[in-house]
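ok so I'm stuck.
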Amino acid sequence: MNGLPVTEIPANISATEPASDPQLRRRAVDIWAARIAVAGVNLTARWPSAWRRRLAALLGDLGWAAVASRRRVTLANLKACFPDMNESQRRQVGRRLFRNLVRATLDHSVLWKASLPDIERHIRIDGLERLHDPANRPLILLAPHFVGLDAGGVRVTTVVHAVTIYARQSNPVWDRWLAHGRCRFIEPVLIARRGADLRAAVRAMREGLPFYYLPDIDGGPSNSIFVPFMGVPTATLPMVSRLARMTGARVMMTVTEQTDEGYVMHVEAPWEDFPGASVEHDTERMNREIERWVRRLPDQYLWTHRRFKTRPPGEASFY
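replied:
not stuck anymore, here's the structure
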């Protein structure tokens, strides 16, 4: 990993007390568990897709039964966003999501180890020509949290030199494994997410690097505005609108769909009339565009994360 182009966004980090012996033992266990998990995933690299699907179905069902906290979050999110579904239907979607998540995890063995021609066959790009702009204008590739997110990110690096925000993992084994896989081809500029300062991304975009950006996270009350998402007032980062206004960037949706045999990365046409009348208007439009894909692929959206963690004042928690 020498020479990896990583830019850290500075943040104030408070000092902590030295870790106690139980904490050290827990960390050692976590590191060994991560090594075993990585080795297990890597073993599936040469398996047929059907074998990974079968294993994912088994492990996904086990996860659905065993990981009660994520199951509760998933069902709470589905209840809020799909009120017309009954409990049985929500559970079916949730169970399929867990299977799809495990499948996406196992598919990292291909993403991280396969040759470039195999990657190109495994992840097809619908709209590839849109990633190439002779004028080299700033570009934001919106990549919402679907299970194919990493597959799309890896495929982008086979085509263009891009910039993206990288969430450092507390476990060093996972951190090295993930960083390696994301830098196998055309090395992206990775910005460590430790603050809200995106000046490094702006500089890269102005140099012509597309920004592969994950827009649908809860940034907390100080960084977000409330706009509807699936009919729910949702704390949403208005960064896409602000970056487009700052840089003149075009904005395109890049949802990566998981299929039986691999993935399809859908690169849509740039949005017209964007940015619009206001940051709020733009952010609401962004959520509507994400909603369109959520309704199309309800069992591939990451309902396991607490998308509605921040609530308007006086509103009860969803979780």
